[in-house]
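Hi R.,

As promised on Friday, here is the backbone we talked about, encoded as structure tokens. Could you run it through your design pipeline when you get a chance and send me back a sequence?
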């Protein structure tokens, strides 16, 4: 990560991003978490509203995918 002289801050920001991504991935519907859904195969990979809220909307999935792509780009640019 190019920190531009802010290495301590960059590490804190990267750690916060790592934790956020971990939280997001907890909300992704997987094979073992499809029980609440009618069309189980269609739901796999989607992102639900929250840990205890099981509703699915395309914007939840789109926003999560967008941040996962941004995270991937951060990881690619690390030195």
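Update: got your reply. Pasting your designed sequence below so it's all in one thread:
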């Amino acid at each position: 990560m190019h920190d531009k002289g802010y290495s301590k801050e960059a590490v804190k920001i990267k750690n916060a991003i790592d934790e956020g991504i971990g939280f997001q991935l907890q909300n992704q519907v997987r094979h073992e978490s499809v029980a609440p859904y009618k069309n189980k195969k269609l739901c796999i990979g989607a992102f639900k509203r929250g840990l205890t809220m099981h509703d699915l909307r395309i914007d939840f999935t789109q926003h999560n995918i967008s941040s996962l792509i941004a995270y991937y780009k951060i990881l690619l640019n690390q030195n």
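One thing I noticed while checking it: The chain has one domain: 7-76.

Thanks again,
M.
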